[in-house]
Amino acid sequence: MDIDLLFTEKGQAGLICSENLLKKALGLLLDTQTGLATIEYNDGDFLEMNIPVESEYFAALDLTTQIHLGAVKDGHIAQAYQIPIMFLDDPYRAEALGAARQVSNPLQAFEYFVKRCVKGQPVYRDDLGDEDKMGCILGDAVPSSLQFAPHLERRHALEAKPQAAPSAPGPSTPGLGGGGGGSTVPPKRSDDN
Fold this sequence. Notes:
Strands 1, 2, 3, 4, 5, 6, 7, 8 and 9 form a 9-stranded mixed beta sheet that branches. By secondary structure, the chain is an alpha/beta fold. Helices cover about 15% and strands about 30% of the residues. It has one domain (about 5-160). It has helices at about 60, 95-100, 105-115, 150-160, and strands at about 5-10, 15, 25-30, 35-40, 45-50, 65-75, 75-85, 115-125, 145-150.
């Protein structure tokens, strides 16, 4: 598997993998001293990146609380979600992460991100000696043309579907329990005592 760190022009960051991660990632840990990052998994296992993040990207990453994580295979988005990013030497980062809110539509957010990537760098390569694999893992795929793989397409469609807004109560109609019907007791006349 190969992994790239990509950025949009507005500084959104994400990791794009050439294969699906086999385990659910819990977060990304970045050591700014060495530039090396580690993907942390739910089960305590981890995947250490083998190419340091360039220091020019640290400022953009510092402004990020959630980083996109996904896989692109054969021109299709095969995996997509967001994980928090932590810095090894930043004890106050946990406060910022505590205030961060989860992305409500993770597939739409990932699609927005990946179609607007403009720069980045490799952060992990299975074979560091293979110079042909040092280019972007998207290869010849145009980011704006990427589609979701069939197993994610339905979920993406559900996320993108407009949600029905609650409607304000309208005028009631007679006979439907909404009032407006006549009374069975005649009104009292003024000459009746």
